[in-house]
């Protein structure tokens, strides 16, 4: 059996164990939806009539993550399974957590869930499906529909508005019309959700192959303008037609991210934000459209967006670098060999190359700059791209020099000449260092 088959078997064993002890137990939510859609499920959640304390007494290793809401994690065969007691929920005063929960039967539990496609149960022991909310119907209709009153469902947790977009874009479904209208009405309320939770949902949308549709839906439903106003600000910002026949900056940006293949969060954000400063830097003189310094301005804006989304410091710095350098490949042919080697040997060059590739595909389609850099990177052996320094700071200190600004400039100059092939030996590097220090106070 493969990993997924083992995980499902273990989950089935947990259900069987609960049933043998006289409890009702069923697979619940997304795993049931995925099964009906023919998709391999990553997780198997279990709903049961057993109370949290009964679950913890029945299984050896448990984690009481949300006992007050009836939720316990059971660890079995190296996997973690969420086992939750059938429940209904009281008002959501904070727009995220219920003020209270009451334990009920499976139908009562189904009617408090977010969307019909996520509200079904399946008994893996009896091979029996339980659908109290019309989930099967909506899978056939390819529809994301709220369970019951959409206004009530979304007010319980405003993050569900973004989740609706995620499911619709991921599966190629439509969002049911009354739910769409409610989302438009409540869109601004999403700002009451923590940015960590917003980022988690946004990540899932942007890392999915259908991210283009996801962004379009976020925009259509008025959510994008609240969580990423810098992206909606791109609408109507014109670009030179000879370079960007596709349209304005917004159209270009959506196209750019659509060309990415299995990107990381850092890569997709670098691509999404590469032209983020064009709306604030655009100038038109004598019929020519320009965006002076939009790379450096954009890098700072990208950093602010990353802070808002609670992105890690390391991820933020890489995203900023991608935005700042996204035009670097255009100048590659004009670069000194030392500068080109520094660019091609940078640890994040592969990410930058991909941003530049999709940027070109979303505009003129001209990949000559990208192809040139890829060719040069293959041409240079690794030791040629980033060779060990012939001269180090310790060498300069041994020569009697004191660390400082000039000290650093000498090291940089010598390494540049080494990269360009002008200096090939340690002796030549030492001689060059002496030349550079003549007359300078180091």
Distance between the termini: 68 Å
What kind of sheet is the major sheet? 7 strands, mixed
CATH first level of the largest domain: Alpha Beta
Counted beta strands: 13
Which shape, going by the Cα principal axes?
Answer: elongated
What's the Cα radius of gyration?
28 Å
CATH topology of the largest domain: Beta Polymerase, domain 2
What structural class results from the helix and strand content? alpha+beta
Q: Which SSEs are present, and which pair or pack?
A:
Blueprint: H1 3-20, E1 25-28, H2 30-37, E2 45-48, H3 52-58, E3 62-66, E4 71-76, E5 79-85, E6 87-89, E7 101-103, H4 106-110, E8 121-123, E9 128-130, H5 135-141, E10 143-144, H6 150-156, H7 160-171, E11 174-175, H8 177-186, H9 195-206, H10 211-220, H11 224-227, H12 229-232, H13 249-258, H14 265-272, H15 278-281, E12 283-285, E13 288-290, H16 294-308, H17 313-324, H18 337-345, H19 349-361, H20 368-379, H21 382-385, H22 393-398, H23 405-419, H24 426-437
Parallel strand pairs: 2-5, 10-11
Antiparallel strand pairs: 1-2, 1-8, 3-4, 4-5, 6-7, 8-9, 12-13
Helix pairs in contact: 6-8, 7-9, 7-10, 10-13, 13-19, 14-17, 14-19, 16-17, 18-23, 23-24
Written description of the protein model:
The structure is a single chain. The chain is of the alpha+beta class and 442 residues long. It folds into 4 domains: 3-138, Beta Polymerase, domain 2 (2-Layer Sandwich), CATH 3.30.460.10; 142-227, Orthogonal Bundle (Hydrophobic Seed Protein); 255-385, no CATH class; 393-437, no CATH class. 51% of the residues lie in helices and 11% in strands. The chain contains 24 helices and 13 strands. It has helices at 3-20, 30-37, 52-58, 106-110, 135-141, 150-156, 160-171, 177-186, 195-206, 211-220, 224-227, 229-232, 249-258, 265-272, 278-281, 294-308, 313-324, 337-345, 349-361, 368-379, 382-385, 393-398, 405-419, 426-437, and strands at 25-28, 45-48, 62-66, 71-76, 79-85, 87-89, 101-103, 121-123, 128-130, 143-144, 174-175, 283-285, 288-290. The chain has a 7-stranded mixed β-sheet. Strands 6-7 form a two-stranded antiparallel ribbon. Strands 10-11 form a two-stranded parallel sheet. Strand 8 (121-123) and strand 9 (128-130) form a beta hairpin. It is elongated and about 90 Å long. The termini are far apart. The model has no long low-confidence stretch (mean pLDDT 92).
């Amino acid at each position: 059996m493969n990993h997924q088959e083992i995980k499902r078997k273990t989950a089935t064993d947990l259900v069987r164990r609960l049933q043998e002890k006289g409890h009702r137990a069923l697979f619940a939510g997304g795993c049931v939806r995925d099964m009906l859609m023919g998709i391999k499920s990553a997780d198997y959640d279990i709903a049961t009539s057993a109370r949290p304390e009964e679950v913890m007494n029945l299984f050896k290793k448990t984690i009481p993550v949300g006992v007050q809401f009836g939720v316990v994690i059971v660890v079995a065969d190296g996997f973690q399974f969420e086992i939750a007691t059938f429940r209904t929920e009281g008002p959501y005063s904070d727009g995220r957590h219920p003020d209270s929960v009451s334990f009920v039967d499976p139908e009562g539990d189904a009617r408090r869930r977010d969307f019909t496609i996520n509200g079904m149960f399946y008994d893996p022991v009896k091979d029996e499906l339980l659908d109290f909310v019309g989930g099967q119907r909506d899978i056939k209709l390819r529809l994301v529909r709220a369970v019951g009153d959409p206004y009530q469902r979304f007010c319980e947790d405003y993050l569900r508005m973004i989740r609706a977009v995620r499911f619709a874009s991921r599966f190629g479904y439509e969002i049911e019309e009354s739910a769409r209208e409610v989302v438009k009405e409540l869109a601004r309320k999403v700002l009451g959700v923590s940015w960590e939770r917003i980022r988690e949902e946004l990540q899932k949308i942007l890392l999915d192959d259908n991210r283009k549709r996801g962004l379009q839906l976020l925009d259509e439903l008025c959510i994008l303008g609240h969580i990423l106003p810098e992206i909606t600000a791109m609408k109507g910002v014109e670009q030179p037609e000879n370079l960007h026949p596709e349209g304005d900056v917004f159209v270009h940006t959506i196209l750019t991210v659509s060309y990415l293949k299995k990107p990381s969060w850092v890569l997709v954000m670098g691509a999404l934000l590469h032209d983020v400063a064009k709306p604030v830097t655009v100038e038109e003189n004598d019929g020519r459209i320009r965006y002076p310094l939009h790379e450096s301005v954009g890098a700072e804006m990208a950093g602010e967006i990353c802070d808002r989304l609670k992105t890690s410091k390391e991820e933020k710095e890489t995203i900023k670098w991608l935005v700042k350098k996204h035009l670097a490949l255009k100048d590659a042919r004009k670069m000194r060999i030392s500068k080109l080697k520094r660019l091609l040997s940078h640890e994040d060059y592969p990410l930058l190359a991909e941003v530049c590739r999709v940027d070109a595909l979303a505009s003129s389609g001209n990949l000559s700059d990208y192809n040139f850099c890829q060719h040069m990177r293959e041409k240079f052996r690794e030791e040629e791209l980033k060779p060990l320094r012939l001269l180090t700071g310790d060498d300069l200190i041994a020569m009697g020099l004191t660390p400082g600004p000039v000290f650093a400039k000498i090291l940089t100059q010598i390494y540049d000449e080494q990269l360009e092939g002008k200096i090939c030996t340690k002796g030549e590097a030492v001689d060059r260092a002496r030349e550079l220090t003549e007359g300078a106070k180091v």
